[in-house]
Amino acid sequence: MTIRLGVLVSGSGSNLQALIDAIAAGGIDAEIAVVISSRPGVLALARAAEAGIETVALSPDDYRYPAVADKRITAELTARDVDYVVMAGYMRMLGSRVLSAFPDRVINLHPALLPSFPGASGIEDAFKAGVKVTGVTVHFANEVYDEGPIIAQRAVPVLEGDTIESLAARMHEVEHELLPEVVRLCSEGRVRIDSDRIVRIDHE
Ligand code: GRF
Fold first, then answer.
1. Which residue in 6, 29, 88, 107 could disulfide with 82, CB within 3.0 to 4.6 Å?
2. Atom 2 (ligand 1) nearest CA
3. pTM for this predicted structure
4. What would you report as the CA-atom Rg of the chain, rounded to the nearest whole angstrom?
């Protein structure tokens, strides 16, 4: 059964594009039912429109109060009967209204190896801390920012001579692989959360 996705974005939408391309290439039985942006005018919305995907842009009034934004987002997602919500660079935590409407169905992408370097600047924070390995995390969102059961992680080495920009470029390449991979696993029903809240991937 084709799973229906709602994708939340705030900016350039390169991860949304990776997902669109991976689905178009085949091998992921999923359909993006709607792309919701925290603001109008972002490149992610143009990418969605170009792919023929329905879009919703929150107005500044919608977005100003988290509870108002959550209500609107929940309504848009439930109206389209989505199975999973993918936060692909959506720059604010979702509230309990959205999370309880999609329990263990909200996937977040974070540019660091959680639980290290949570927050809005994971790449910079890891770089400035001088770590030699950072990476990408895809996890289920819960009500604590950048917490919640980890689905997949992939390491990215910090190289001698790296700048934040060069590191960020390699991080994004890994994000663009890992996020579609996780969506594929979800579409195949191979991701489950144990009673200990640890994610187990069923391998054939
Ligand atoms: C990604 O680095 C993601 O990890 C972070 O925001 C960025 C979004 O990039 N949360 P894009 O909009 O998908 O290009």
1. 6
2. 111
3. 0.96
4. 16
